Amino acid sequence: MLRKILKNPQAVxxxxxxxxxxxxxxxxxxxxxHSPDEVNPLMKYQAPSxxxxxxxxQLGRCxxxxxxxxxxxxxxxxxxxxxxxxxxxxVLGMMTAxxxxxFDRIMTGISQVFIxxxxxxxxxxxxxVLGNGLQNIIWAVVISMWARFMQLIRTYAKTELGRDxxxxxxVSGCGMWQLIIHHLIPNILPxxxxxxxxxxxxxxxxxxxxxxxGLGLPSGTAEWGAMLExxxxxxxxHPELLIxxxxxxxxAAVGFNLFGxxxxxxxxxxxxxx
Amino acid sequence: MSKKLLQxxxxxxxxxxxxxxxxxxxxxxxxxxxxxxxxGQSGSGKTMTCRAILGLLxxxxxxxxxxxxxxxxxxxxxxxxxxxxxxxxxIAFVPQNPMTSLDPSRKIGVQMAGFLKLHQxxxxxxxxxxxxxxxxxxxxxxxxxxxGSRPYQLSGGMLQRCLIALAIAGKAKLVIAxxxxxxxxxxxxxxxxxxxxxLQEQGCALLIVTxxxxxxxxxxxxxxxxxxxxxxxxxxxxxxxQNPQAAYTRELIEAIHLGWR
Amino acid sequence: xxxxxxxxxxxxxEDKLLFDAVSDVSLSMADHRIYALVGESGCGKxxxxxxxxxxxxxxxxxxxxxxxPISRKRKNNRKETAKAIQLVLQDGKSALxxxxxxxxxxxxxxxxxxxxxxxxxxxxxxxxxxxxxxxKESAAKKTGELSGGQQKRIGIARALAASPRYIVFDExxxxxxxxxxxxxxxxxxxxxEEEQCSYLFITxxxxxxxxxxxxxxxxxxxKLIESRRWCGNLDVFKNPYTKQLLQxxxxx
Lengths: 274, 261, 252
Description:
The structure holds three protein chains of three kinds. Chain A is mainly alpha-helical.
């Protein structure tokens, strides 16, 4: 499968962007010329220079450093969110598909209630209840999106469960967990990764939306959405302060989306040419 | 002497990338109102040959050489616009699985009338009644029920008969059928073959693709035994099946007869 | 002894009415014999096979293995049933997990049902591959890399792995090329003689049934309409439907 990915231009572009963003997030302390929070009122709105490659913002903080650290904030939230969502989705989705019956009906009912609301609304409501803070953002996004993940896994699992090889595995003595671990998960994993990838893009956007709305992160944190919010005031005088974080969000989301969608195309069963 | 309706000369088909020769030098000669049977196991190339005649091969993917003449026209050289003149009207196709070839959401009467209107200058009502007449000529009695049903409400065998009726209504001169009996049980198989023979009586030529020797025996006509893209043996059905010349044909015929303890 | 006693199975149809897929069927399967179940599609033979395998429960009646009803309720009971009764499906390809290697496919019942030590497991897998006339190298291949005929054989090897007493073949030779069909049938006959197990061979192809079986059962519309010991004499079949089937296959 790795070969197929490398042959697909869209997948390669997406993968490169993803690696880029991850590298920046990991290496931010090494790459950044200054601390992202170092305020210097005398140096505000500086043009790009040797010392400040992208200039400074309204509080004299190094723009480049803030952008680099912003990658940490975005990915640092988006990835734990997706891991939690993936875990909950897999376990609950598999269980509802395999156990069926009353359990399935109850879980489906509950998830349908959650799906009925737009994710941002639920997340904002949860933040409202829990208050600000990193952990609360993670929980808010997870609670708003878990139902979609569960439904997706459940659908995939149900499709696989109808297949002959599952019947054969049951007759070969497989119990429910053996079916899930040895057969269902390996066969569903590729499609699941697609959703995971586009889910990261979604999470990045959601987190940025939060900080743009002033929710979640402490004010002043170097995070792209927050930077967008703060730069609004300088829209006409210093539009670049809006453009930079905007591009960063764009690249991150695009990278994961491109990769995810290319993965979906790669995994489509090939049409029988002959 | 009957005119040659379909002439396939030196048909060769290869996959372009990676290069793989699929069909080599196939020759088929079919006269009006006669029957030819492409007989072979899976992978023999019979379906591919059929698709070439139907103009369904993507020229970007496949290299198609040779000549396919139908009623004096070269089918391989047909332009997009000219396709309607032949396919769907003079040349009809009954696919292996009729259920998946029809629109599941529309009623049979509406769909079939729609097809007829593509080729003949008819109003909706007239097309529908023309089709209904064809259904009766195909030997079906509760035509109203069939016209009002959707494909999934009818059995595979019944849908096949609907497509045969479409060929009749469309005044087809050649009907190509791909594995028409594979999805049917033994008892229905004979009835299905009768349908095709009935078509032949009405002046239609048949090109049947199958792996079933019983079907070949029942329909008769000219039989071409295919193996791995080549023609191994051909001749009148009765002769080939009773006195096979090629070793492969003999091997196949022996394998059919299982015998018992 | 595997006994099916007055078994019926009902389903809700599209019109929400109950219909009988299987209606009061009784038959018994002794050890070391081949039984064929012949019928056209929709006659209920596949449903009956699922009941015998314990994949579904009958609406009424019982299925007894050595006098005890087979039940899916308890885990141990399921394993006992699986050890005794195995299955070979129709479609060779879809019966195999596309992510598994050949080795994993055949080893799966060994691991689930027998818990053999690794070396015994390995030798059993290679022994089965050998009997299926497949090379040792094919063990490492993924199931999708094999031909249709090879996939069929792997399915048979898997069914044989835990040495079951009964094997259910559900339309296992449907859609096979003529030459492959004959090869597989000859293979099945040979294996039954070697393993001394019993087969329930379900098919709509009556000639294959007559080739393999010692006893023929004919099903129509969910009911068992004729059951005969088969010794080579076609006159033993009296039921007009059976005769119709024989005629359609050009046997009489």
